[in-house]
Design brief:
The chain is an all-alpha fold. The chain has helices spanning 6-41, 47-55, 60-74, 90-116, 119-126, 131-141, 143-167, 173-182, 186-214, 216-221. Helix content is 78%, strand content 0%. The relative contact order is 0.14.
Length: 225
């Protein structure tokens, strides 16, 4: 529609999308490890798992609209249209992290609970070792499932970012894709779809290779030392 090469258009819009996904992933990892580790190691915080389960039922578009109404319209703390400055990205990142962070925290807490009942952790608890030391070894023990969890989460962030970009009118790949669909700009639709599909394939392949290198059980099954 614009007589511009598709790759050039995608390259111009990809920076904002990659920034949203990258910042959100870092925040989600830090938040989920902290909250999930505390819930898994402190039985008194078990009620938070039920609260996270309730929060998981909130659709991301509903959270986005509610955040716009509270923080943008009522309190007027943050702008909520466009992406011309860093302040414009605060609400979109908050919405993405809220939606995905609750899911990751719930999954991490479930993994930590299963690891906390192991014989090694029970002995360490009886010896009076602090919980954050035990948490370090729990993460080492759960490193392989955590890699798989966060790899799948990165794929989920791509879909969530598309919805958020449309609601907040952010000029990224998601909004570009929807604009191309509405104008029936088929070359742009095909280009974005191809890049996203190849990116997801390469990400899954990289995660599988990483797990293969880290998991000693796979190495032993393949005849490694």
């Amino acid at each position: 529609m614009t007589n511009t090469p598709v790759l050039q258009i995608i390259a111009e819009k990809a920076a904002v999308t990659l920034k949203l996904i990258g910042i959100s992933l870092v925040i989600c990892i830090a938040f989920s490890l902290s909250l999930g580790g505390m819930i898994g190691n402190f039985p008194a915080l078990k009620w938070l798992r039920q609260l996270l389960s309730v929060m998981l039922s909130f659709p991301i578009y509903w959270i986005a609209i509610l955040a716009i109404f509270i923080f943008g319209v009522q309190l007027k703390w943050f702008p909520f249209v466009g992406s011309s400055s860093g302040r414009h990205l605060i609400l979109p990142i908050f919405v993405i992290c809220f939606s995905e962070g609750c899911y990751l925290s719930k999954m991490v807490s479930d993994l930590i609970v299963s690891s906390a009942t192991s014989e090694q952790q029970i002995i360490a608890k009886f010896r009076g070792i602090k919980w954050y030391y035990r948490f370090y070894y729990q993460l080492k023990e759960l490193f392989v499932p955590l890699i798989s969890l966060y790899g799948n989460s990165l794929i989920n962030l791509i879909g969530g970012t598309v919805i958020v970009e449309i609601i907040f009118s952010i000029s990224g790949l998601g909004k570009l894709l929807m604009d191309a669909i509405s104008t029936r700009d088929y070359p742009v639709i095909q280009g974005i779809t191809l890049i996203i599909a190849c990116g997801i394939f390469l990400l899954n392949y990289f995660v599988d290779l990483l797990i293969q290198k880290i998991d000693m059980r796979i190495q032993l099954d393949q005849g490694g030392e």
